[in-house]
Amino acid sequence: MVTIREAVAEDNPRLAYIVFNEPDFEAVALIGDVPRARTYGYGKIALEKIPSSPIRHTVVAEQDGIVVGLLQYAMEKEYLPTWPVVWLLVKSVGPIGFLRRIPKLRALRRVNIDTPDGAFNIEAVNVDPAYQNQKIGSALLEWANEEAVRRHAKQMSVSTWIGYRSIGLYERDGFTQIQTKRDAEYERYFGVPGRVMLVKNLP
After folding, report:
1. CA distance 202 to 149
2. pLDDT tens figures, 151-165
């Protein structure tokens, strides 16, 4: 049986493993290889200082005492502090490597889609690969629906990559695609056309 609870600081190593042990294609393309993308990702988890962020909230899915997935959400626009992230990237790829990646960073910014004002925004849903296809993502999404209603949100939102497999999960839950951003340079660097925003109106 899967239970959902608020994340605690002791969950951080497990969360880092779930999210970044197999880095997504965007992180690998930005950093250059899997080992460095993994190190960079672990560093970003540390910067988030879960669970102390006043804006971004993290809950975990637990099964038989093991954290097997997580969901992060925010009720307002949330950004990690800029300079610590820049310094982390510099440490990961070196000063010259950072300068060479500026075009990729600009392409990432061009496909970013702003969160609708006041929406319960799902920032991330991740499930341990060893526990996928066990309805854990669906359980996290069901919890998010209940929490959004409890917080009196009028709308839920989520942004992901165009053509990404998770779009079907959201659309089956009632989300609708409302905006896409495409960029030729982003597609050349990262292999997908851009990003899409989906929203779901709540009663």
Report:
1. 7
2. 999 999 999 999 998
User: Which pairs count as long-range contacts for 103-109, CB under 8 Å and 24+ apart, including other chains?
Assistant: 103/185, 103/189, 104/29, 104/30, 104/189, 104/190, 105/30, 106/185, 107/183, 107/185, 107/186, 107/189, 107/190, 108/26, 108/30, 108/186
pLDDT tens digits, 66-109: 999 999 999 876 655 578 888 999 999 999 999 999 999 999 99
Q: Are 137 and 125 in contact (CB under 8 A)?
A: yes
Predicted confidence (pLDDT) per residue in 119-172, tens digit = 999 999 999 999 998 999 999 999 999 999 999 999 999 999 999 989 999 999
Residue 202 has pLDDT above 80, yes or no: yes
Rounded Cα distance between 7 and 19, Å, is 14
H helix or E strand, kind and range, residue 180: strand 176-182
Contact status, residue 154 vs residue 201, Cβ threshold 8 Å: yes
In the chain, where the domains are located: 2-201
What is the third-level CATH fold of 2-201? Aminopeptidase (3.40.630)
Residue 66 vs residues 18, 124, 125: alpha-carbon distances, Å? 12, 19, 17
Mean pLDDT of the chain: 92
